Every structure is written in structure tokens, then in C-alpha cells.
Amino acid sequence: MRIVFMGTPAFALPALDALRASPHAVTAAYTQPPRPAGRRGLQLTPSPVQRFAETHGIAVRTPVSLKDDATQKEFAALGADIAVVAAYGLLLPRPILDAPRLGCINVHPSELPRWRGAAPIARALMAGDAATACCIMRMEAGLDTGPVLAREPFAIPPPTWMRAGCTTRWRSSAQSCCFRYWKSWRTAPRMKRRRRPTASPMRRS
Question: Who contacts 91 (Cβ-Cβ below 8 Å, separation ≥6)?
């Protein structure tokens, strides 16, 4: 299948790497534009996803927004069968969600429906959760509301305040979950929701 990947930080690399190792073709990687970095912020630095994609010969697109007609037409022209999203950082408007033949799926770092939203790992740690998961879900217009297609649970290592340890475990879980799902690539039935949804908004300082 022809796949478009959409992600930005190093957090998204396990999903992209698993896709690259699958039998499918990653035709383009969408990521946030290069940002100022360095002591004076004078040097534009590409995202980890952009650097990874360029290293492995994947075409890169860095639109500032997905809302304008030209960007949406360019996306549709790729003729993707599916789009895979992992920590991209931009909202996907309806024309983008509808463009791929099989729609868009999201790699989400929580035991959905618990901790929907932008900061699921932080919220799981703050709540003292003993376990979480990597979930692959079909995207809908709502925030993390689509059906779960695959799930890889794992225990949160103590102490719970060590976010780096949880992030490392999640990356390993994501790689395993994504590799198995990309390899078989068959749509699973919607899993039964075991808990009520819990939001995980970004903290504001």
C-alpha cells in the first residue's frame, strides 16, 4: 500500500521506522517546518522525522498549515491508501482525513479511551497509573474518538515520576505494536470500551 506518514518529534520515529521495515511504501513524510534553534535561535533545525525521512530517501513535506486548498490538493494528489499519524502537531481538517482511500490512523500513547488528547504520558504519570499502552486507532473528526485497531499494553516503570523511563518503554511498545500491525495490515473490529474517556490536555504554565 501507499502510505503517507505524519509526525514531528523523535517520539514518532518508532512508528515511521516500523513502517519503513514493512512491505508497504512510504511515499511521503509530513512534518512540522524547521524551527529556530541554538543559543541565539538563528539556525533553523529540521524535525527528527524530517532528518530520518531524508536519511532514508523519503520525500518530505513541511506545510505550516493543512487548512488551505493548495496544501489539501497536494496531499490528495499523492494518492495514498492510508495516512499514519504520530505526534504530528497539526490538526487534520476533514479534506485531509477523507483523502486517503482507507482514511487516517493515529498511533496514540495511552490505554484508550483513557487519556485522550495531547499529553497522555504526563497525565498517566500524574495520576499514578500502573500501566498504559500504545494504541493504533482510526481517526475521526473528534479528538481520539475513533475505534481502536491494535493495542500493546505495558507497565509503567517505578518511580512513576521518571517520565524518561515511561517514554522509553512506550517507544519500544510502539515499535512492536506498529511492526505487527503494519505487517499484517488487516482492520480489526472495534474493541469494547472498558472505561469512560479521560481527557489529557496540555498543562499551561
Answer: 66
> What count of Cα atoms within 13 Å lies in the side-chain half-sphere of residue 93?
11
Model confidence, pTM: 0.78
The four Cα atoms 3, 189, 197, 201 give a dihedral, to 10 degrees, of 0
| 12-45 residue pLDDT tens | 898 899 889 888 899 999 999 998 876 666 788 9
For the chain, the distance separating the N- and C-terminal CA atoms, rounded to the nearest angstrom, is 43
Comparison of pLDDT for 60 and 167, the residue scoring more:
60
- Which 3-state string (H, E, C) describes the chain? CEEEEEECCHHHHHHHHHHHCCCCEEEEEECCCCEEECCCCCEEECCHHHHHHHHCCCCEECCCCCCCHHHHHHHHCCCCCEEEEECCCCCCCHHHHHCCCCCEEEEECCCCCCCECCCHHHHHHHCCCCEEEEEEEECCCCCCCCCEEEEEEEECCCCCCCHHHHHHHHHHHHHHHHHHHHHHCCCCCCCCCCCCCCECCCCCC
- CA proximity to 14, closest of 186, 180, 200: 180
* CA 194/CA 175 separation, integer angstroms: 24
